[in-house]
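Key idea: predict the complex, not the pieces.
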Amino acid sequence: MKRLFGEFGISSAFALSLFLLVVTSLVSAQEVQEGKGIKPGATQAKTQAVPKGGPAPRTADGHPDLSGVWFPGTAGGFTFSPVLKRQFDPKVTPEEPPPFQPWAAAKIKSMTTTDYELGRASVNCLPRGVPGMFMIDPYPFQLVQTPGLFIQLDELNNNWRVVHTDGRPHSEDPDPSFDGDEVGHWDGDTLVIDVIGIDERTWNNFTGWFHSDQEHVIERITRPSMNYLVYQVTIEDPKVLTKAWTSAPRVWTLGHEDLLEYYCTNNQDVEQYKALKAKESSGDNKK
Amino acid sequence: MQRRLPGAVAAVFGLLASAGALSAHHSFAAEFDASKCMDLTGTFTSFEWQNPHGYFHLDVKDPSGNVTSWTFETVSLSTLKRSGTERKDFADNVGKTVTVRACLAKNGEKNRAAAETIKFSDGQVHRIGQDVEGKFSESAKQ
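Result:
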C-alpha cells in the first residue's frame, strides 16, 4: 500500500478521500445511497457516487479480499456521467505522459485518429491483455480471490486471467501471450503482480502506445474500503520508453449485479474504418 | 438529478471526459460526423441484438414516396441493458413507426448512421448511442 500513492507523497486513503470529496460534492447534493440497494437486473444508469462503505473484508489468511464485481469510476455500475466515470482526479494525483523514446514518439505522432481506431485491440476484437484489462477497459470485471490465486473475469470478450499469488518466479523463456507470464505476491495489503512476455499486439492506451517484447509490467491492487478498488501500474520498456512510467492510481467501485456475456461477434467497424482510411488517403477528411 | 456545476468546473470535467479515458469499443466521434446529425422517422423493420454493437434498420419514406432502408448502430448490449433498454423494447417496435436521432458515417457510406436516441412508438425516448453531438453533456455533468 505504501507505493500505491507513494510516488505522490500521499497515502491511498488520503488520496481516495480527496477524490471522493470532489466527486461527491460535484455529483451529489443528497445523501448518497448505500451500495447494497441495487436489485439484480436493475437497468437504471447510476447517478451518484457510492460511499466508501466501511473497511474492506479480509480473507481467512488475513489479506484484503479483492473479490467482487467492479465498475470503473465511482458509480458502482453503469453511468452516463463523465464525472462518475472518471477514475482519478489529475489535480489530486497527476499523471505524466508516457516518456517515449524519440523514434516511438515520432511513430505515434504520425498516426491519424483513424489509425488509432484501426490499431485498437477493441476495434479488432482482440483481447485487451495486461495492463489493458484495467487501463483501457470501460466494462466491469469480476475478481475472485482464493488462497494463492487471483482470478480476473473480464466482461469484455469474456476474457479471464489466473495469477498465482504465492510468490513463485516467472517461467523460463515464456511464450508471448496477451496477458503475459504473470506472478503475484502480497506486499502488506497490496497485491503486486509482475508481468513479462506480453504479446506485442496489445496497446497500453487508445492512442498508439505500442510496446516491445521487453515490456515489464508491475501492477498494484488494493481495496482501501468496502466499495473501492484501487489499481496502479508501472511500465518499463527499455526499447520504447526512456524511463519507467507509473500511472495515477485509478478507482473502481463495487457493483451489485452479475457480469453479462460480451463476445465480439458482429463487428462491422473495421470495414467502416478501412473505408474511412481510404477516403482520408485520397485527400479528403484528414485528421 | 438536476444539479448545477460552476461553469469553469464543468468545462474542466468536460475536457477530461472528452480525453477518452473511458472510451468503449471504439470512438463514435472518430467514425461518425457530429456535424451531420438528423432526425429520421420510419418503420422499424429489424434488429441485430449482438455485440460489440447492436444494429437496427428503418424503412424511411421520402416526400416523393421512395423508401430507403437505413442501418443504425447502437452501443453494446450490456450498456443498453444497464441504461434501461432491453431487447424487448426493440422486438415490440418491429413494424411500428419510430424516430431516431443519428449522425452519418464519416466514410460517406450512404444510409448508415450512429443512433444517439430513439423515440419508440409509445413515445418513450431512450439513449442508445454515444453522445456524438454533446447534446447530453450538460445533463451528464449534473
